[in-house]
Automatic annotation (TrEMBL):
Species this chain originates from: Furculomyces boomerangus
Signal peptide: 1-23
CC terms in the record's Gene Ontology section: GPI-anchor transamidase complex
The protein's annotated pathway: Glycolipid biosynthesis; glycosylphosphatidylinositol-anchor biosynthesis
BP GO terms, sorted: attachment of GPI anchor to protein; GPI anchor biosynthetic process; proteolysis
Similarity comment: family membership: Belongs to the peptidase C13 family.
One matching Pfam family: Peptidase_C13
Annotated transmembrane regions: 366-385
Keyword line: GPI-anchor biosynthesis, Membrane, Signal, Transmembrane, Transmembrane helix
A molecular-function term among this protein's GO annotations: GPI-anchor transamidase activity
Entry-linked InterPro entries: GPI_transamidase, Peptidase_C13
Protein name: GPI-anchor transamidase
Amino acid sequence: MNSKYLLLVVVVILSIFVVHGDANPEGFFTNSGHTNNWAVLVCTSRFWFNYRHIANTLSMYRTVKRLGIPDSNIILMLADDMACNPRNKKPAAVYDHPNQSVDLYGENVEVDYRGYEVTVENFIRLLTGRVSPDTPRSKRLLSDEKSNIFIYMTGHGGDEFLKFQDFDEISSYDIADAFAQMWEKKSSFTIVYDHIRYHQIFFMIDTCQANTMQNAFYSPNIISVGSSKKGQNSYSYLHDNALGVSVIDRFTYYNLKYLENVKPGSTQTLKDLFNSYNPALISSDPEVRSDLFPKNPDKVLISEFFGMEQNIELTTDPISLGPNNSTSLPDFHEHISLKEKLNSIESKVEHQDSKDVIHDFKANAFVSYLAGLILVAVIGVSAVFT
């Protein structure tokens, strides 16, 4: 008798999820609002005397990797190659401290845009997805409507502009319009699949008069911070006498100093990071702009932008197991054909965005798997009662 009740309980629990709505396995496992993280790290300066800007960017690269964002989700843009510069007394190495304890270049750095590839045009195309069809995956920002994106920029700038390569510049309005296109973007390859390109953006910039680069932003879900207000410089820090240059900027240094104490699983928030700023130490006045962001910084975990952690939560939101919002069970042969579907999907990857393909496959697999469980439970109940 107990076995009968046990099987009935199993059927009831599984039947909760046989309801009207779209199949959404991501929504089933999380309601955190985002399912993936990306980082776009940009150094816009050339020449040996701008060594610190390369070190700034590589230091931030090391931090986001340590906190869990893989190279596949990091776009690294370096306008010069300091590691191979003939003036570098430590060939193939870049350091952000005179004690040279940590080689930032190391053996696992993947530079996606290098040298003269780092241009305003390429940066805008990267953000908006308007890249050439033959652009490799490593040079694409394959984000979607559930992506949290951390964007870090460093170089020489001024009132509402940042220089690229000392011969071009990007304005606050250029970046603001790129963010607007990301929010409205209709993304498609060979299949029409509409989605915006971000869930939330955290924009950080370290340059002179950096706070002015936030002025023109108008798209939703963006929080930003700059190193210095209008009329202020952003200063270098930690001079290396052996190299003859400064190896890091003050604002970036104190951000990294705080982030070094952040571990995976930490409950520290962006507000905690912002509260750590000391203008006396930074020698400028950082400014946070959060009016476009839906949450207070004290409610936003640092790991939401600097890591790949996701909260796993069950939900009672309805999920449909049948096509066209039908609650009918899929044909049993769907289980047998999953391998064939996978083979078909693999051939499509060459012609369309792999993220869309994986999403479709996960949804089909999730539907078939859950339907199979329910079918087995129903058969079991029938066998017991007969």
